[in-house]
Design a protein that fits this description.
By secondary structure, the chain is of the alpha+beta class. The protein is built from 10 helices and 11 strands. Strand 5 and strand 6 form a beta hairpin. Helix 2 packs antiparallel against helix 3 and helix 5 packs across helix 6. The two termini are 37 Å apart.
């Protein structure tokens, strides 16, 4: 997949970027950048795409994303509705190895950091008590300047490196390489997110981006390491989890609202992806 290259410019006298964002909805498309990124969702909900992984996100979601790993945070439809008062807020930190100074990561004392940065190639979800500690430090980071802010960043990455509450996000390491095809891939994402509740064919999607069906199939699988239909089903199943955990509608209705037209197929795919049936998933989430 070839997403857009994003760059958050450094201000004078700083070696890394800290931004607190407040939008009506997250505007950044499927993108990548050469910096490491910590992103804390402080107010928002929707679907998070990192590498080849698709999950729902909400306030408190915290991820550590390695260099050039493509990602996208797309809000729920309610955020795009006219007159919506919903807000999409986050704290984002971009830094590079150079932010710590030349040869810093060559020191024997920084081996835990070297291991952490290597693991971040697949993205890391920060959970449990580590999530709470890092979230608090990221809020503090917004208030600090100069040396104190740099020291706080060291404290954050040290805490991450020592934690056993980090989970890999992407099944594989996927690297963005250029931005020439960003418009095409973002059209695919937008089309699927708007239409997954109904039947979508490879032929229809190919027409949307002006490719022959066979060319589109190769194009998509080469860049995402999965078929287009697999991707659509993953989006549908992610939405099914949301419906199962938040609504009282029956499982058949969940199936059809997510774009599946066959209940047995829905049950089979759900169990294959999550290891349990939709009914068991609902019971475990106390709906």
């Amino acid at each position: 997949m070839k997403p857009v290259l994003e760059h958050l410019p450094l201000q004078s006298e700083e070696s890394f970027v800290v931004k607190a964002f407040d939008y009506a909805y997250y505007p950044t498309p499927w993108h990548f950048h050469p910096e490491y990124e910590l992103v804390l969702v402080t107010e928002s909900r929707g679907k998070r795409f990192i590498g080849d992984n698709i999950v729902d996100f909400e306030a408190g979601d915290l991820a550590f994303i390695g260099p050039n790993l493509p990602h996208l945070y797309r809000n729920d439809p309610a955020f795009y509705a006219p007159g919506s008062t919903l807000r999409a807020k986050s704290i984002v930190v971009h830094f590079s190895e150079n932010s710590f100074g030349e040869n810093f990561l060559s020191l024997p004392e920084t081996k835990p950091l070297q291991a952490l940065f290597s693991r971040s190639a697949r993205g890391l979800e920060v959970t449990g008590g580590t999530n709470a500690r890092i979230s608090a430090m990221m809020h503090e980071l917004c208030e600090h300047k100069g040396l104190n802010r740099w020291i706080k960043l060291i404290e954050i990455v040290k805490t991450l490196a020592e934690s056993d509450e980090l989970r890999p996000i992407s099944h594989e390491s996927i690297q963005g390489k250029n931005q020439t095809e960003s418009d095409r891939m973002n059209k695919v994402f937008e089309f699927v997110m708007k239409n997954f509740h109904r039947g979508i064919t490879v032929s229809e999607m190919a027409q949307q981006i002006h490719l022959a069906e066979s060319s589109f199939s190769r194009y998509f699988s080469n860049r995402t390491r999965k078929t287009f239909i697999t991707f659509v089903n993953e989006v549908r199943l992610s939405h099914a989890c949301k419906l199962l955990s938040e609504n009282q509608i029956n499982i058949s209705e969940v199936c059809f609202q997510c774009g599946f037209n066959n209940l047995s197929n829905f049950n089979r795919l759900f169990k294959k992806m999550y290891g349990i049936s939709p009914l068991v998933y609902r019971k475990e989430h106390d709906v």
